[in-house]
Amino acid sequence: MSDSQAENSAIVRPAVPDDAPAIAAIDAEHTGVEKILHWQGLLTSCRDNGGLALVAEFEGDVVAYIVGEVRAWEFGSPPTGWIYAVGVAPRSQGQAVGRRLVDAARKHFADLGVSSLRTMVRRENVELLRFFRSSGFVAGPFVELEVDCG
């Protein structure tokens, strides 16, 4: 079985707080910062508050994750699914693992009666922008604005 076939046979399952170290390690491969306490708290919050937290697991190893929730009524928006974070271990990129997680998130939110899914991406993160665009995402109805608080 090729690596691509193997990763495509990864199991998508709900994430649990014990997955935090593996998720933190994948995140650190992309960001350079290991935030294990952040991930432990986020996974616990998702479990306790009905959020979305999934991992893709291959041969007992977590190779990808996605985390999100439904948000409603901020800035006049109807209930909308939000992806907070998605990450794929570099060794598993390009093998549709991330796409499978996004598809699972879309189904999850559709099953909740939500009609749209959103996320935010840094402009300079071309790789992640490309991933989301290839997954069907387009510019949404809002423009993010910010100001320095200092």
Structural class: alpha+beta
Q: Main sheet: which strands, in order across?
A: 1-2-3-4-5
Form type? globular
Poorly predicted runs of 5 or more residues: 1-6
- Looking at this structure, what is the CATH superfamily? Gcn5-related N-acetyltransferase (GNAT)
Rg, rounded, reads 16 Å
Cα distance spanning the termini: 55 Å
| Helical content band | 25-40%
CATH class: Alpha Beta
Query: CATH architecture, please?
Result: 3-Layer(aba) Sandwich
* Contiguous helical run count: 5
Query: Could you state the order of secondary-structure elements as H and E?
Result: HEHHEEEHEH
Can you give me a brief rundown of this structure?
By secondary structure, the chain is an alpha+beta fold. The chain contains 5 helices and 5 strands.
Verbal overview:
By secondary structure, the chain is of the alpha+beta class. The protein has one domain: Gcn5-related N-acetyltransferase (GNAT) (Aminopeptidase), CATH 3.40.630.30. The protein contains 5 helices and 5 strands, in the order αβααβββαβα. Strands 1-2-3-4-5 form a 5-stranded mixed β-sheet, sandwiched between helices. The termini are far apart.
